[in-house]
Design a protein that fits this description.
Elements (H helix, E strand, L loop, with lengths): L2 E3 L5 H11 L7 E5 L6 H5 L3 E4 L8 H4 L5 E4 L8 H15 L3 E6 L12 H13 L3 E7 L6 H11 L1 E4 L5 E2 L4 H14 L5 E5 L5 E2 H12 L4 E4 L2 H10 L4 H15 L9 H6 L6 H9 L2
Parallel strand pairs: 1-2, 1-4, 2-3, 4-5, 5-6, 6-9, 7-11
Antiparallel strand pairs: 8-10
The structure holds NADP nicotinamide-adenine-dinucleotide phosphate.
Length: 286
């Protein structure tokens, strides 16, 4: 049984590889990446490190050779990645991969205004259309991304949001990796889509309350519209296209598309998911 992980030099890829390598012989683990040199340490442990770039389909046949189960990590090229990911699915099918696990987004439906949805929905469809068995892991927003937001709220006394009263079931990247590794190493779950979430859904008001507790000071909740939120992100230095993607999650939050809490992390891994408050306290409290 050979297990492969694409994008293995990315943060989720590396975390997933670490979990898989806890229980699987490294010689049966294939790690694909655009930058094999970044995985020299895992190659030294015996893992097979291979070059794969979804924008260069010629790299994919060799990369997926002999692989049984594949974790296909969505790339960061939002808006341009659908064709890349379709190419990866097609190459995996041609190489004889039997099961693909894909990292998606909660509620990838047309009504969901998050700008990442179209690529994920298209990739999920490509999986359903393929001959290969699949599992979809719809990862909620990473909990650690709220650390700077709350840190800034503690420093400034203001927490700015465009999410209204909507809530988000933040999950840690480690829990996403552990869930993926559980399926890769144990198999099963074909034809299933799971919401990968933290233990609870939190609103911006909840985040402000956490900032008050951590900072020991008043923190005002400042509600703005999507345009103003995007302007703030650009003023903070985010490039236009990234600011636009990030700001679109405000509308998704208000629409309730990120609020679903599931038991999938505990069901798949056997341990409870980490709470956002624990991540933030560990990062910000001395
Ligand atoms: N749930 C969330 O809050 C959240 C937040 C941000 C992103 N995401 C999504 O989740 C994915 C994994 O998150 P992360 O934290 O690991 O992000 P990351 O560290 O930024 O990793 C980006 C990933 O994209 C891969 N990639 C980029 N271009 C590629 C290409 N042409 N061919 C193959 N792979 C390519 C990279 O692989 P190599 O560099 O190894 O080739 C790497 O695995 C992201 O790529 C994104 O789709 C989710």
């Amino acid at each position: 049984m050979t297990i492969a992980i694409t994008g293995a030099s990315g943060a989720l890829g590396r975390a997933s590889a670490d979990f898989v390598l806890q229980t699987v012989d490294p010689r049966e683990v294939v790690l694909t990446t655009r930058r094999p040199e970044a995985l020299a340490d895992l190659a030294a442990r015996g893992a097979q490190v291979r070059r794969a770039d979804f924008t260069d389909p010629g790299t994919l046949a060799t990369a997926f050779e002999g692989v049984d189960r594949l974790l296909l990590i969505s790339t960061d090229a939002v808006g341009a990645r659908l064709d890349q990911q379709r190419a990866a699915i097609s190459a995996a099918a041609d190489a004889g991969v039997r099961h693909i696990v894909y990292t998606s987004v909660p509620e990838p439906v047309p009504a969901n205004p998050a700008l990442v949805v179209a690529d994920h929905a298209g990739t999920e469809q490509a999986l359903r259309d393929s001959e290969v068995a699949w599992t979809v892991l719809r990862n909620n927003l990473y909990a650690h991304m709220q650390v700077p937001t709350i840190g800034q709220a503690v420093a400034s006394g203001r927490l700015v949001t465009s999410g209204g009263a909507g809530a988000t079931a933040y999950v840690t990247r480690e829990d996403c990796a552990a869930a993926a590794a559980a399926i890769l190493t144990r198999g099963g779950h074909e034809g299933r889509a799971y919401d990968i979430t933290g233990p609870e859904a939190l609103s911006a008001a909840d985040l402000a309350a956490l900032a008050r507790e951590i900072g020991g000071r008043d923190v005002e909740l400042v509600e703005v519209d999507d345009a103003a939120f995007g302007t703030g992100l650009r003023a903070a230095g985010l490039p236009d296209h990234i600011a636009e993607v990030v700001a679109s999650f405000g509308a998704a939050t208000r629409g309730g598309f990120l609020a679903q809490v599931s038991s999938a992390v505990a069901d798949l891994t056997g341990r409870k998911p980490t709470a956002l408050a624990d991540v933030v306290r560990a990062a910000l409290q001395p």
